[in-house]
Amino acid sequence: xxxxxxxxxxxxxxxxxxxxxxxxxxxxxxxxxxxxxxxxxxxxxxxxxxxxxxxxxxxxxxxxxxxxxxxxxxxxxxxxxxxxxxxxxxxxxxxxxxxxxxxxxxxxxxxxxxxxxxxxxxxxxxxxxxxxxxxxxxxxxxxxxxxxxxxxxx
Length: 154
Hints:
Elements: H1 2-25, E1 48-49, E2 56-68, E3 84-99, E4 102-115, E5 125-137, E6 140-141
Antiparallel strand pairs: 1-2, 2-3, 3-4, 4-5, 5-6
C-alpha cells in the first residue's frame, strides 16, 4: 500500500512539474493598446471622435415621466379612479467632420411619447416622430430643421 501511495504521489508531482515547464515555454503575446474614445473639442461640449475616423459625434437627449392620480367622485365606493402616466423621450445625434468645403454635418432628432389618458378624455396613445433631420455643408443646411410657422401658439 505504501508503494502504491508513493508511486501515485510521485506521478502527480512529475505531471505538475512537466505542466509548469510547458507553461513557461509558451510565447507571451503583447496586448494591443486599446483606442479609447477621445474628446472632440472643435465643435463644443459633448462631442467625441468615432474611433478610427475624424468624425465627431454627440449623442444627447432627455427623458420625462409623469404620473397622476385623481379620485373619481362620480363612481361608487372604490370602483376606480382616473390615474395614469405620461412618458416622453428625445434622442439627438449630431455628427460633424471637417472637409475642404467646410463642416459636413448630419443631425437627427427622434421624439417618442406615450400616455394613458389621465390628462383628458381621449388623449391616450403613443407618438413617434422625427423631430429634425438634416445634412449640412458649410453654412448651408437642407431638410427638416424647424417649423417655419408656429401652429402651437396660434
